[in-house]
Write a structure and sequence with these properties.
The chain is mostly beta strands. It has 1 helix and 8 strands, in the order H-E-E-E-E-E-E-E-E.
């Protein structure tokens, strides 16, 4: 069954707020001094791909707030430029909300809502340029060792015609410092 964007966003917001308010009382310290920045971790991704007449570059910084050793919530930005000679130039800019849960130290479960604006400009005048929003709602699992997690995630909102990813399943490497 295909989930609508609104329904998926409601599910994600419910999970996000549930984690936040459940762990807010657990994560608060009894000191007057704020230790907010001691719980913030930064990370993200970078990508570069070149080949026969194809170029792609991605920059995706993110930050999470580590409530405790089990739960973290965060935000991310992403930007991608893609071109294929004599065919198309595309720019993808977006943001995301991410929730991470580590039931045990080595396992990380994740939920991530991503919203991307896609702008495609075709060089062939017979093809129509396009600009649209592409949502994604990922649920994933990975193996974690220290700051690095390697895993796979699945997009519940995947659409063959509009999604920016090749298919609903996507491997990932996540790094936070």
């Amino acid at each position: 069954m295909k989930y609508t964007t609104v329904f998926a966003l409601k599910i994600f917001l419910f999970l996000f707020l549930s984690f936040f308010f459940t762990n807010l009382s657990i994560g608060q310290a009894k000191t007057n001094k704020s230790d907010f920045w001691e719980h913030v971790r930064f990370g993200g991704g970078i990508g570069l791909s070149t080949g026969n007449d194809v170029f792609s570059a991605t920059l995706a910084p993110s930050a999470i707030y580590q409530f405790n050793e089990t739960v973290a919530l965060g935000v991310g930005l992403s930007g991608t430029y893609f071109s294929r000679k004599n065919l198309v130039k595309s720019t993808i800019i977006g943001g995301s909300l991410i929730g991470l849960v580590n039931p045990i130290n080595e396992i990380q479960l994740s939920a991530e809502f991503e919203q991307n604006n896609v702008s495609r400009n075709f060089e062939d005048p017979n093809l129509i340029d396009d600009n649209y929003w592409s949502p994604a709602l990922f649920f994933g699992a990975g193996y974690r060792t220290r700051n690095v997690t390697i895993g796979i995630r699945y997009d519940l909102l995947y659409d063959d015609n509009r999604s920016i990813y090749a298919n609903a399943w996507a491997p990932f490497v996540r790094v936070y410092f």
